[in-house]
C-alpha cells in the first residue's frame, strides 16, 4: 500500500469521524434548542395577563426574541455578509463552518505535498464545490420543509383572526410550539417585532434572509391590513390554499421528471467517481500523468469540461 493511499485512507476515516461528531452535536443542539424554545414559549404565553402581547408598543420584548437579537453579529461587515449569504437559513453552527474550513485547508496541504501547489489548489476547489453543494442541498430541504409547515401556521392565524384577534396578535399566538425550520424563522421575526411592531417589515426581513417569495406575499398582506384594514383572514386563507396547490403541482412535476433528473445525476457524477477511484486505487498512474505537461493539461481540460457539462445538465434538468 502506497503512502498516498494510506494518507487518503486516514483522511477519509478522519472526515467520517468528524461528520459523525458534527451530526451528533447538531442533533443534541437541536434537541436542547427545541426544549428551551418550548419552555420559553410556555412562559411567554403566561406573561400577558391584561391582553397585551410581547412586541406591541409599551410592552417589554420577549426574552427569547431579545436573546435572538443579541446573538446576531454586531459588526456591519458581518451583518452584510450574513444578509448576502443567508447564513441564518443554513441551520449550521459557526463552529461547524470553522471545522469544515480547517479540513479544507488540511486537504489542500496534503494534496500540495503530493503533487505541488496546483494540485492542492484543485483539491481545495473540489472540496469547496462539494461543501457548497452540501450547503445548497441542506438549504433547499429546509426551505421545502418550511413551505410545508407554512400553510398550517396560516390556518392557525385565520382561526385566531376569525375569533376577534388582530393579525399581529394572531401571529404572536400562532408561533407557539412551531417546529424547525419554520420555528427558527419565526424566532427571527419575533426578534424584529421586539424593536418595531410592523409585522410587514418582519416578513420582509424573512424574505431577504430565506429568499422565499411567500414571505414577501405575507409582508404585502400584513402591510395592506395595517394601512387599509379589510378581511385579512380571507386573504391569508387564500394564500394558504395557493401554497398547498403549488406544492401539489411541484410534487407532480417532480414525479413526472424523475427519470430526467436521475439521468442528469448519473451523467454528472459518473466521471467524478471514476476519476476519484483511479486516483485512490492507482495513484502512481495519476501522479505520472500529472507530472507530465501534456497529462496535466488533459486533467485540467477534463475538469473544466466536467464543470461545464454539469452546469448544462443542471440547466436542462432544472424545473423552475
UniProtKB/TrEMBL annotation:
Main localization, broad class: membrane
Subcellular location: Cell membrane
Domain of life: Bacteria
Pfam families named in the record: T2SSF
Keywords: Cell membrane, Membrane, Transmembrane, Transmembrane helix
Alphabetized InterPro entries for the sequence: T2SS_GspF_dom
Mode of membrane association: Multi-pass membrane protein
Stretches that traverse the bilayer: 6-26, 89-112, 118-136, 264-286, 298-317
Residue ranges occupied by any Type II secretion system protein GspF domain in the UniProt entry: 154-279
Name the record gives this protein: Type II secretion system F family protein
UniProt organism field: Comamonas resistens
Lineage of the organism: Bacteria, Pseudomonadati, Pseudomonadota, Betaproteobacteria, Burkholderiales
Amino acid at each position: 500500500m502506497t503512502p498516498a493511499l494510506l494518507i487518503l485512507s486516514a483522511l477519509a476515516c478522519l472526515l467520517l469521524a468528524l461528520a459523525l461528531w458534527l451530526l451528533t452535536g447538531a442533533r443534541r443542539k437541536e434537541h436542547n434548542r427545541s426544549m428551551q424554545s418550548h419552555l420559553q414559549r410556555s412562559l411567554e404565553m403566561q406573561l400577558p395577563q391584561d391582553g397585551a402581547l410581547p412586541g406591541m408598543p409599551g410592552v417589554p420584548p420577549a426574552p427569547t426574541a431579545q436573546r435572538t437579537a443579541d446573538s446576531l453579529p454586531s459588526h456591519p461587515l458581518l451583518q452584510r455578509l450574513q444578509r448576502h449569504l443567508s447564513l441564518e437559513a443554513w441551520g449550521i453552527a459557526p463552529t461547524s463552518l470553522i471545522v469544515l474550513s480547517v479540513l479544507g485547508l488540511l486537504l489542500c496541504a496534503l494534496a500540495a505535498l503530493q503533487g505541488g501547489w496546483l494540485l492542492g489548489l484543485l483539491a481545495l476547489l473540489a472540496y469547496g464545490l462539494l461543501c457548497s453543494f452540501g450547503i445548497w442541498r441542506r438549504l433547499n430541504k429546509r426551505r421545502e420543509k418550511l413551505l410545508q409547515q407554512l400553510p398550517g401556521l396560516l390556518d392557525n392565524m385565520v382561526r385566531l383572526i376569525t375569533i376577534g384577534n388582530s393579525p399581529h396578535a394572531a401571529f404572536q399566538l400562532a408561533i407557539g410550539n412551531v417546529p424547525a425550520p419554520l420555528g427558527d424563522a419565526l424566532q427571527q421575526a419575533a426578534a424584529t417585532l421586539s424593536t418595531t411592531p410592523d409585522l410587514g417589515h418582519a416578513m420582509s426581513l424573512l424574505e431577504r434572509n430565506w429568499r422565499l417569495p411567500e414571505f414577501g406575499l405575507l409582508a404585502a398582506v400584513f402591510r395592506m391590513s395595517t394601512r387599509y384594514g379589510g378581511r385579512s383572514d380571507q386573504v391569508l386563507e387564500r394564500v394558504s390554499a395557493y401554497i398547498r396547490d403549488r406544492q401539489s403541482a411541484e410534487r407532480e412535476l417532480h414525479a413526472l421528471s424523475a427519470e430526467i433528473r436521475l439521468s442528469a445525476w448519473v451523467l454528472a457524477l459518473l466521471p467524478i467517481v471514476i476519476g476519484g477511484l483511479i486516483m485512490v486505487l492507482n495513484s502512481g498512474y495519476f501522479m505520472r500523468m500529472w507530472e507530465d505537461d501534456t497529462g496535466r493539461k488533459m486533467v485540467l481540460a477534463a475538469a473544466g469540461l466536467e464543470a461545464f457539462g454539469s452546469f448544462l445538465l443542471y440547466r436542462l434538468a432544472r424545473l423552475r
